[in-house]
Amino acid sequence: MSPAGITCRSDHSTLVQKWSVFQGYRETAGHFVLLTRDPDTMCVGVLPKRAVREAGGLDRLRAILDQHTTRV
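Below the sequence we write its predicted structure tokens.
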């Protein structure tokens, strides 16, 4: 995550999604679900909470999401 948006990298591709793509996010017990503004697509990405290993990491991630998009 950066001020520009979210970047996802794999061995074969790189996907950059600007914050303007997102309508908001929802938080579940195990995930943060990023929702798109596109009415034909519901979910853009899922961030599993289990990937956060640092103390306070979930609070920092939540603060970043709140800064750039809204909880819906």
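Residues 35 and 41 are 8 Å apart (CA to CA).
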